[in-house]
TrEMBL record:
InterPro entries: Restrct_endonuc-II-like (IPR011335), Restrct_endonuc_IV_Mrr (IPR007560), tRNA_endonuc-like_dom_sf (IPR011856), Type_IV_Methyl-Rstrct_Enzyme (IPR052906). The lineage of its organism: Bacteria, Pseudomonadati, Pseudomonadota, Alphaproteobacteria, Hyphomicrobiales. This is Restriction endonuclease. The keyword Transmembrane helix applies. Residues 144-245 form the Restriction endonuclease type IV Mrr domain.
Length: 260
């Protein structure tokens, strides 16, 4: 029976047991066997709907975060093109790391690979359907954007101040809360931020004796920047994240060794 599907296996054993029972109990047992087989078939036919419903439930639990990440990772470039590369990566990451383990636990492992695109589409619809507060227009000017980020940190209880236009050593904003110093580099970009910004703020954290370091941008981040941030402990944030940012002392490496 190892080569058969679970549904075929269930039908086989119901038929065997029901057939044996019908030899003794006659028509009632035969009718019960037929009803049981029909129920198994209907349950199997309903499997696609149950799979989609499960994926929707999982996505809806994270709808606010998905909607925010969609907003953060989509932008319009200098040529007027809508760039969604960052969001497409984020969406696939969510399906792979969050959805797949849960559908596997619920017995839908065999459905996951052939319906991967369907899962992505469901996540997209959930993210689009969730309403976010209207996005506040951010300053176009870089210096004004630094002040804007400092103000948003202030809303979260940080004592934040811009460092000024020169001599900042890669640090645009210094913020302190609960004995933790945060070093921030702000990037008001029309394209994803690269790993150079991560290198700079990691070095700035050493220079300014910061326990936390972050690059803040209105746009997304390149895969190289995300990889380097994971190694160095640098936070990659959208300015919307600043109003809820809490101080933490990050374990492990706190900065880069520059020049080696």
């Amino acid at each position: 029976m190892s080569g058969r599907s679970p549904t075929a296996t269930r039908l086989f054993w119901v038929a065997v047991i029901g057939g044996c029972a019908s030899l003794r109990y006659g028509a009632p047992a035969l009718s019960a066997t037929g009803a049981a087989c029909l129920a198994i078939l209907l349950h199997r036919l309903d499997r696609p709907r149950r799979f989609r419903a499960l994926v929707r439930r999982i996505a809806r639990r994270h709808a606010p975060t998905l909607a925010l990440r969609r907003r953060q990772e989509c932008f319009v470039d200098a040529y007027g093109n809508t760039i969604e590369d960052g969001w497409l990566r984020e969406r696939a990451y969510f399906v792979e790391r969050t959805v797949l383990p849960l559908v596997g636990e619920r017995g839908f492992s065999e459905d996951a690979e052939p319906r991967f695109e369907e899962m992505l589409a469901i996540v997209e619809r959930v993210a689009c359907a969730h309403e976010l507060p209207d996005e506040v227009d951010t300053p176009e000017d870089g210096i004004a954007y630094e002040r804007y980020c400092a103000e948003r940190l202030g809303e979260a209880g940080w004592d934040a101040r811009p460092t000024g236009a020169s001599g900042d050593q890669g640090c645009d904003v210094i913020a302190e809360k609960a004995g933790v110093r945060l070093v921030v580099q702000c990037k008001r970009y029309g394209r994803p931020v690269g790993n150079a910004a991560v290198q700079e703020v990691a070095a700035a954290a050493l220079h300014w004796s910061g326990q936390m370091a972050a690059v803040v941008s209105n746009a997304g981040f390149t895969p190289a920047a995300r990889k380097l941030a994971g190694t160095t402990g640098v936070l990659l944030l959208h300015h919307d994240d600043l109003t809820t940012l809490a101080p933490t002392r990050r374990a492990g490496r706190r900065g880069l060794t520059v020049g080696r």
